[in-house]
Amino acid sequence: LFRFKWFKRSLTNAVSRMISRPLLILSASRVPLHSVRHMGTAMSAMSHVAFADAAIQFACFTVAAALQTEKFYDISASVTYILCILISRRQGVRSSRSSVNSTLVILWALRLGSFLLWRVLHDGGDSRFAKAKTKPLTFFIFWAIQALWIFIT
Question: What is the pTM assigned to this prediction?
Answer without folding.
Answer: 0.66
